[in-house]
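Dear support,

Our group has been running a series of protein-ligand predictions, and this particular one with alpha-D-glucopyranose is the one our PI (initials K.S.) wants archived with full inputs and outputs. We had some confusion internally about which version of the output was final, so please treat the block below as the authoritative record. The input we submitted was:
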Amino acid sequence: MFTKFGVSNLTSLYRSGKPFATGAVIATIDESKFQQVSTLPHFDVEETEDSVIFTHKMAKGDVVYGLGESLGPLNKRGRIYRMYSTDDPEHTPDKKSLYGSHPFLIIDGVSTFGLLVDYPSEIIFDVGFTNKDILKITIPSHNFDFYIFETDDKQKIVEEYLQLTGKPYIPPKWAFGFQQSRWSYFSENEIRDVASKFRELSIPCDVIYTDIDYMERYKVFTTDKMRFPDYASMVKDLAKEGIKIVPIIDPGVRIEEGYPVYEEGKRNGYFCKGKDGKDYVAAVWPGLTHFPDFLNSDVRTWWGEKYKFFTDMGIRGIWNDMNEPAVFYTLDGVNRVVRTIEEFEKSDEEDKLDAVLNVRDAASNMAVKREDYKSFYHRLDDGTIVNHDDVHNLYGFYMTKAAADGLSKLLPGERYLLLSRSSYPGLHRMGTIWMGDNKSWWEHMLANIRMLQSLNMMGFFYTGADVGGFGSDASPELLIRWMELGAFTPYFRNHSALGTRPQELWQFDEETLNITRDIVRLRYAFLPYTYSEFMNAVETSTPFVMPLSFVFEDERTKDIEDQYMYGSSLMVAPVHEQNKKGRYVYLPESKWLNWIASKYEDREMKVYEPGDHYIKADLHEIPLFIKQNGMIVLTEPMNYVGERYVTELTVVGFVTGHAHYDYYDDDGTSLNYLKGEYANISIDIAKEGKGFKINLRKNDPNDILKIKKVRFEIYDDQGNIQISSKMI
Ligand code: GLC
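Confirmed final output from the archive:
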């Protein structure tokens, strides 16, 4: 039995029991208008004693999108997925959970609709695995909210979803620049060296991260005075070079007498409690730690204020990690291992092998155990005590809320970069996520391409993966190809793990350096387009990155998972396989203008008819396609975003009839755009005889734009170019 509430014409809530108020949804739910219903559209419902099971019969050609950060294909059919946020750095094809839990689906086919299950613990999605035509959702509880979006327009489903959960977060403009990270740069000197290397080698760069080793004994909100004697001066000096420092912060607070964060948390009862009512103990990087109880608003306020430590230094970006929360081991876990050792000692000779294997299994399975998550508790604002396992998927969400609320207070009117590893629906309105600990594997490039699309349809517009791969060693070829992909993802960060082959662009050979430098420069040349498209995407609640099937009717596009729309005019088809000199590309519906991009200055363009094509793309080349009657907007690359005013734009268009583009810009760092302080240039291009008629209209009441001249490189359907320029 459910109660139903119409959230909008297209979105209905079906409530079962008394769900936990997760905070994912921001739309008003008026409980006085609830109606009793016994059925749900699209699903058969079976209730058992401790679970509710939803089954939907999928038609043969139905495609299932969604589930945000999860492995497997873009069309989720044929696999089982488990929503239970998990720190697992081995993203092998058999894995069912990653760091975030995103129970959102779009079923596209005979009957098209979307759904969101707002329930913060384990949910199993069997998307045609057990039975290839059955979608089965198992919720091991009777208390949850189930939303259904009823429209056969996929973009509209996303729009409804964003109306329910909030508009995507907008980072500062510099966050669209290139970002460099490594676990770890071990000292201030090393960071300064990395920064100078970027400038020396003329590789644009906006951000460098400091990973856990900047802290004193991994104590959050401290810096190591030996290795980073003057962190604040480092931040200030590098800011002069246009480089922003972003520090990592983990939730685990080291248990150490006299350490203020620990002392304050303990004194005020801010940590999660164990079964015995004492502060729960779990080991992470700092050794034994306590976990702040982010589900409590006093704790969030306290934690949020702690970021002042960084904002006072001029820092405007925070990287919150390990917030599933990751647990390396607990004392209970160690005891479990000790017991297997004792059993080994007591075992008879013929049982020794089994006993040793038990020791091995227990020892290698100490991290992220469900038993551990069942062993600690949260205290909500109204005093209710909740077992962590019941709300597990919310921990990262509420750590992000603590940070977002804190940063908003500390930096009124300013934007900040805020990253989280774990997430839940709704986090996208406060900050963003990256895709966690991938590996330098070609397979993970493809995973990156697919997840980028799945996350965008859930409001995580600004996202990306560790470019080059986090774990394992990157080959020069892999790094180059991944940089080509990364240059066309909103969040573009090269990050690698301790012990792996260094992955900065200069760590390989001269050719790799030259090619990757050109890629980063290409990224910066694209910034006017990227930023304008991103802001327009947020404004219109249209994903910034979209599967082709969200844009084109053409049935074939449902099979295309490794090409995507990047903004409204550009399709990207990255080469993601080893030793390839090109790739097959499917061009839907219309003609496309292909740019085999390498150096941004070299524009080799060719018109293609719709259909299948083999596109040559040597190691230094990336296949880009401009849509018919679409355009991109470029500028001269800079060393960092905002190094100089943009005084000239270059519009590259493919116009066969009429093309219109609304170019957007604002100051890039403040929230003034919310007050209407932004600029537009409306660009109108119409084919007229053999030439083009171009109309420009600037709307810039706050004098934001410094653009004096717009150059046009407009191609017609034969690939003939007309070059012109206009002063504005
Ligand atoms: C986790 C993060 C990774 C980071 C490492 C050390 O594995 O996902 O990005 O570098 O911890 O802090």
